[in-house]
UniProtKB/TrEMBL annotation:
The chain crosses the membrane at residues 255-276. GO terms for cellular component: plasma membrane. It comes from Sinocyclocheilus rhinocerous. This is Uncharacterized LOC107709979. Residues 1-16 form the signal peptide. The gene is nitr8. Residues 121-227 form the Ig-like domain.
Length: 295
């Protein structure tokens, strides 16, 4: 973490907005294969790299490639065949096979240009154990507008595995426009929200809810439910919240601005043409035009 902030202030290498890592949080099952996506800018650079940062630890380089050559150099600890990359124009995806617990970390895609290192926002990889516990988040069914109230739902179901102490659910928000080095964002402090649980002989089912009132543009993003159950932390699949329409969107859209600008330019050209024509006619007929002053 210290190296991360040193890199920010000394080299100015972090937060390159042109490097895209679309998933800030990526959850999968332990032992599965996973692909962490990275989309590169259309700019000149010398090398492309992948770095890994364990929680609370320094950055570690995984791989390095020269521009778009197919040859990739993997460092010690990452050259066992489980790590691979896909390289093509604008793409530098990282593949991890047969994921292990030590793969839980934040992965940064970066480029090196003129001796400086530029990172994307990073992707935090969370691995859930194969278990009878399921955490499901329901999508927002209705269209959402600014000022609306909504309720986000997270269902937790355990089969043949009952736990004492109940479930503890926390909600996190991930917004694409955030530039902070943090990967998961909370809506204020972490708080426990509504919980309704039902038990029967074979399974336990709980529903956790998060109510959002008077929505604004700043509430857009992906909301993740993290549940502490049976001594394990399980992440949901995420609920994406976007607005179907926003007041004033038409007046600020690029297309609208282009149309307005073209109309203004056309009007100016017409006025100039009329003025030139009037001037020519006035000169030929000897008629002078006088404009009354307001002074």
């Amino acid at each position: 973490l210290l190296l991360f902030f040193i890199c920010i202030f000394i080299f100015g290498c972090v937060g390159a907005q042109s490097i895209e890592q679309p998933k800030r949080l990526q959850a999968t099952k332990l032992g599965d294969n996973v692909t962490i996506e990275c989309y590169l800018p259309n700019k000149d650079f010398n090398n492309i790299v992948w770095y890994k940062q364990d929680m609370g630890m320094k950055l570690q380089i995984i791989s390095k490639s020269y521009i778009y050559l197919t040859k990739v150099d993997f460092t010690d600890g990452y050259n066992d065949g489980r790590f691979n990359v896909t390289i093509s124009k604008g793409i530098y995806h990282l593949h991890i096979s047969l994921t292990k617990k030590e793969d839980i970390a934040t992965y940064f895609c970066g480029v090196i240009t003129l001796g400086e290192l530029y990172f994307g926002p990073g992707t935090f990889l969370m691995l859930n154990e194969h278990t009878s516990i399921m955490v499901l988040q329901e999508p927002v069914s209705d269209k959402v507008h600014i000022g609306d109230n909504i309720t986000l739902t997270c269902r937790v179901q355990t089969v043949d595995e009952k736990c004492e102490g109940g479930h503890h659910a926390y909600w996190f928000r991930e917004a694409a426009e955030e530039s902070s080095p943090g990967i998961i964002y909370t809506d204020g402090d972490m708080k426990k929200h509504g919980e309704i649980c039902k038990d029967d002989s074979t399974k336990q089912s709980c529903v956790h809810t998060l109510k959002k009132r008077n929505l604004s543009l700043s509430d857009a993003g992906t909301y993740y439910c993290a549940v502490l159950v049976c001594g394990k932390i399980m992440f949901g699949n995420g609920t994406y919240l976007e607005f179907s329409s926003t007041p004033g969107k038409l007046t600020t859209s690029p297309l609208f601005l282009i149309l307005v600008s073209s109309n203004i330019i056309s009007m100016i050209i017409m006025i100039l043409l009329v003025a030139v024509q009037c001037k020519d006619q006035g000169s030929s007929s000897g008629i002078m035009f006088f404009f009354k002053s307001n002074s």
